[in-house]
Design a protein that fits this description.
Layout lengths: L1 H21 L16 H20 L6 H24 L2 E3 L2 E3 L5 E2 L13 H12 L3 E4 L2 E4 L4 H28 L13 E8 L4 H11 L3 H9 L11 E9 L4 E13 L5 E5 L5 E4 L6
Antiparallel strand pairs: 1-2, 1-3, 4-5, 6-7, 7-8, 8-9, 8-10
Helix pairs in contact: 1-2, 1-3, 2-3, 2-5, 3-5, 4-5, 6-7
This protein binds zinc ion.
């Protein structure tokens, strides 16, 4: 249940951040390059659910459907709370809207001759007049208040979808690269064993499979003076990973190589397409 708390905290922080931006004044949530692309929504939607994914990552929990769903709920609720806060903090001073509580609250004004500004009318007002921004699109300058209510409604809906998609995108980024046991929640315990030349991969895999016949043969096999190929590129690193609660173990072979960066700097990278893994049921008893 702590993931719920984490999601609420990150959503509250996003709402607070947005409110602080309004004091500059700047508005991130409806930042839409190219008029409709909901960039601000994607960013804030991702940040709303970030707490959930950080929690899962730190506590080494497996991502489940309920975490996805709650992340999207956080983003969706965050979207509406931001708009409601925008209405609640809309004060009018010298004919201009501010969010610093200067002047009279907008609900003291009439939206039309018969209705005052409630939240629904405020949204209509935003669709009609409020977002007066000038963008440069393909060399043309377009002022969005000339685009009409239909345009603003579509942009508003896309922004809401952007919040939800941002949350899903955050889950993918935050959980990327985790290696966890499929049967339980926990991460694998991973031990690096040794490295060798990729040319003898077939031979090594066969040798390891044969050595599974007994645990002592396997430990002999891996403790032998193996070919350390650290200086050469590429090489294969061998890992043992296991889950003690589910009694499953694997030997994985990671294909590593040095990628050249600028100024003769090299970075060690893994070629994930060449990843190989074999089950090692005899290693866990
Ligand atoms: Zn497990």
């Amino acid at each position: 249940m702590l993931y719920i708390f984490s999601g609420i905290i990150s959503t509250a922080l996003v709402i607070l951040l947005e409110f602080l931006f309004w004091q500059i004044p700047f508005s991130l949530h409806d930042f839409r390059p190219g008029l409709v692309l909901p960039a601000g929504g994607l960013i804030e939607g991702a940040l709303c659910s970030l707490g959930i994914y950080l929690y899962l990552r730190i506590r080494k929990r497996r991502l489940k459907a309920r975490h996805f769903i709650f992340g999207v709920i956080c983003a969706f609720v965050g979207f509406w709370v931001i708009y409601y806060l925008n209405y609640s903090s809309a004060y009018i001073n010298n004919g201009m809207i501010n969010h610093s509580f200067k002047g009279m609250h907008i609900s003291n004004y009439m939206y039309d001759n018969t209705h005052s500004f409630n939240f629904g009318n405020y949204l209509n007002f935003i669709f009609n007049h409020y977002i007066v921004k000038t963008y440069s699109v393909g060399g043309y300058i377009v002022t969005t208040d000339k685009l009409g209510i239909g345009f603003h409604r579509i942009a508003f809906i896309l922004e809401c979808i952007g919040f939800c998609l941002g949350s899903l995108g955050c889950s993918v980024i935050a959980m990327e690269g985790r290696d966890y046991c499929k049967s339980c929640k926990g991460d694998f315990t991973i031990k690096r064993l040794y490295s060798f030349d990729p040319e003898i991969l077939g031979e090594e895999m066969e040798g390891i499979t044969k050595s599974f016949e007994s645990k002592s043969t396997f430990s002999d096999f891996i403790s032998k003076d193996r070919r350390h190929a650290k200086e050469q590129s590429p090489f294969i690193e061998v890992y043992l990973k296991y889950c003690t609660s589910c009694k499953v173990a694997y030997i994985s072979f990671k294909y590593m190589y040095f990628k050249e960066k600028a100024n003769d700097q090299y970075k060690l990278k893994e070629d994930k397409d060449r990843f190989k893994q074999i089950e090692a049921p005899y290693l866990i008893t």
